[in-house]
Amino acid sequence: MAIYAVGDVQGHLQPLLHLLDITNFNPANDQLWLVGDMVNRGPDSLGTLRFVRDLGTAAKPVLGNHELHLLAVATGAGREKTGDTLKAVLSAPDCEELMTWLRHQPFVHVDKSIKTLMVHAGVYVKWGRKRLVRHTQELESVLQGDNYIDFLKELHCKKPKRWKKSLEPMARCRFISNACTHIRFCGHKGKLDFEHKGPPGSQPDTLVPWFRYPQRRCTKWRIVFGHWSTLGYRRESNVVCLDSGCLWGKQLTMIQLDSEEERLWQVECR
């Protein structure tokens, strides 16, 4: 058995299949972790969704901001944006089935056997692993519940930017979702920043990358994430970023997580 993790596919199914071919991926024995943003902007979001779904338990995806956007558009809670490539998914005969499958995917995947967790964008700096899992389960119960469209209508809102236990339910959901699917930089007292998307060093002095935040809580587990294409593939302290800019014509990156040293494969995305 081998455990592989792949970066943001964003509808680039052929590079993903190429990686699985060169690594001899076997869904009967191996696992494929996907860091989210499986869809949108690329040429084959529909094929990517169907492929991952059909892998069954061999696939371990987490939700990213583009999956949430797709759910919002599909349910009428949001509108398509310039650059979206979701029409094939929205018009597919199995669209409703795919959306139901997406709504039941987690925001965090944890594997104690290799002491690794995966989340789309990062881990909020004041949460340890257990709090992260607890809060994401709270959000998952909303997304899988009867009133999930009410949450999807809130996706455009990037407030609150600081966590408080006293937040009302929908504000809690917004914060958990934004922390897991949008985080890049943090400011004073862990305040989330959503304006700056460049690489570390391009931000104001008042901000730091979330994984360099002083007294960050979740430091004892390896954290695999994507989302940050300007960061690129990077290993630093206990974090591994796998978004190497496939969307922008760069590479799609895959690593093996259960080997003594992380093995790396990259293929070009045209």
Structure description:
A 5-stranded mixed sheet has the order 3-2-1-12-13, with helices on one face. A 5-stranded mixed sheet has the order 4-5-9-11-10, covered by helices on one side. It has a 3-stranded antiparallel sheet with strand order 7-6-8, with no helix packed on it. Strand 4 and strand 5 form a beta hairpin. The protein is globular. It has helices at 13-22, 45-54, 65-75, 87-90, 95-103, 129-143, 148-152, 169-181, and strands spanning 3-6, 31-34, 59-61, 108-111, 116-119, 185-186, 192-193, 208-209, 222-225, 234-236, 239-241, 251-256, 263-268. It is built from 8 helices and 13 strands. It has 270 residues and is of the alpha/beta class. The longest helix is centred in the middle third of the chain and has 15 residues, at 129-143.
What is the percentage of strand-forming residues? 15-25%
Classify the helix fraction into a percent range: 25-40%
Radius of gyration: 17 Å
Sequence stretches where pLDDT stays below 50 over 5 or more residues: none
The CATH homologous superfamily is called Metallo-dependent phosphatases
- Please identify, by name, the CATH architecture: 4-Layer Sandwich
Total number of β-strand segments?
Answer: 13
Question: What's the total helix number?
Answer: 8
Shape annotation: globular
**Element order: H for helix, E for strand:** EHEHEHHHEEHHHEEEEEEEE
Average the pLDDT over all residues and give the rounded result: 96
Taking the alpha carbons of the first and last residues, their distance comes to 31 Å
As for the CATH topology, it is: Purple Acid Phosphatase, chain A, domain 2
Oligomer: single chain
CATH class: Alpha Beta
- What is the total domain count? 1
Strand order of the largest sheet: 3-2-1-12-13
Main pleated sheet: 5 strands, mixed
Structural class by secondary-structure content: alpha/beta
